[in-house]
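Lecture 7 notes: from sequence to structure.
We start with the chain below.
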Amino acid sequence: MSILWEGKNANSYLVMGNDAFARGALEAGVKVVAGYPGTPSSEIIEQLSNIAKQADLYVEWSVNEKVALEVAAAASFAELRSMAVMKQNGVNVASDFLLHLSMSGTRAGMVLIACEDPGALSSVNEGDARTFARLVEIPLLEPGNFQEAKDMTRWAFELSEQIQSLVMVRSVTRMSHASGNVQFGPLPETHPKARFQFHGNLLDQQTGPVISAGIKHVLVPGRLAKLRDLFEDCPFNTYQGPDQPELLIITSSACTLYSREAVNVLGLEDRVGILKLGTTWPLPPKLLRKHLGATQKIMVVEEVLSFLEDNVKIISADAGMDIGPKTFYGKTSGHIPSVGELNPDLVIEALSRVFQIQYQPVPKAFSDQAALLSFAKAPGRDMTFCPGCPHRASFWSIHNALALDGRNGFVCGDIGCYTMAYGPTGFDTLKTIHSMGSGAGLASGFAKLRQFGMDQPVLAACGDSTFFHAAIPALINAVHHQSDFTLVILDNSGTAMTGFQSHPGLQINAMKEEVPALDIEKICRAVGARVEVSDPFDLEKTLNLLNLLMEDKKGAKVLILRKACALSPERKTEKKYSMKVDEDRCRGANCGCNRLCTRIFKCPGLIWNESSGHSRIDEAICVGCGVCGDICPEQAIIREEN
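Predicted structure tokens for the same chain:
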């Protein structure tokens, strides 16, 4: 049983930030939750799906973030509290409906939790979704610690109902995935009945039709004014420090913790004040003017864009006659990095520059010795696919097929584990990588350039979850316009990169209920594409199919490479082959292949033994897929069926 459901009121528990968000939603009486998996947001829905039956929730992994927001909105329109959850890139996907939802308004409390990834720790970008709050004119809240993650989420539902609008709550990786003590509140015992009313006047938010109409925009300025007034006395906006600080730090989210630590380490508690803002759009102008007027120097500490800094400067400019000129330090001045994740050391460095303090975090001799020991003890290893990953075999075949074809063909990539195939782990195969589904869309575009002389074969690669998320429209577009390209669908039976969450191609949903699975092969055939299927571990068949499809000039083709992820439950205990190296056959560096298995193929289950001059199998890592037996030109890697 989950502590999120069993945890007692007024008791304190050590939980992850995403658990705190989930508990806050439970305490608010949420009934419908939808989202699309993406680090660092996934655990919120996973935790709620595990207790869906006990808590009387409906929880789903939607096909994409736009649909997730629409599913959650339907619940709000039917007077049930609801929540949508996604990572920062997902807000871009949902933005079309988001723009309309902000205009139509909501009924029962509705919250969008967007978990961002400063530094792109597990993303292809570090996009900043905060700008959407200002763009679509909805409130933005940012918890500064784990307790606030829970309490602010609960309050966000109440705020949503006060202003009849979606409320956006922003998290970051260090808030979502770190842990802290959180005191739980009571869980409500409510059983609301869903009912959609639509017979009232268009401008009656509770009983009229819910329509995104231009006439409703006249209501937005009043909503924003109401929010500013509410935020002036919000308990999530706090100040600590002297009444007249030499420097005022304005910050939010996890940067609050970095700022407090930096001030403490430098011993600046009597000289620096910290204004922590939990309500970062719209900003409370009176509160800002009060604190801006108490000092001449201001440093804004935030991650990714200068969103908070720019908006604070606007308020400062408006109040210039009353508070006087100010000196700002932040991203614009270069004191705070304009890209990447922040940490206490970076804030310490910025404060040291402002106060002209000489600060050495550790003695240089210590750091030099630590670096030396680290280099000596920890061998370098490229970022690579897992042992037995079907993607390694897939890109081996794709790379070789393109080489055999000889027309300088290329592959448009996508987002997933297979994104790594832009580098050595995937034999430098992917040549474009953008958003989910964009590989197929770009390939469709490239393939229509034949009239301008492009004769290169064009391929695209995407995963099974991405196919349902965003690649279907691109494939339909390609079939309709007779785009000559090959879409390779890497079907590993789940949303593997983020933890095997379900998608429409599987027979189970987020709540572990049995549901009908949609057949990727039938969908592709139904839209008119030529479709072939292969096991990526069958290198010969896969190679031949790829070359046949590249030679077929009749529009869009699809090759489905179907093999479950090596870490999936169905393969985790499977070891089809026992692998070994015949040292009499293995010629190592003296072979014409020059150690192809460990130098190029680079499965972690293969090790080069320098002393013996042979490759060997690491039995603790090898999962027995048997593919390496096919790539050795000397047939020195032997597989024995278990």
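Points to note: The chain has 24 helices and 24 strands. The chain has a mean pLDDT of 92.
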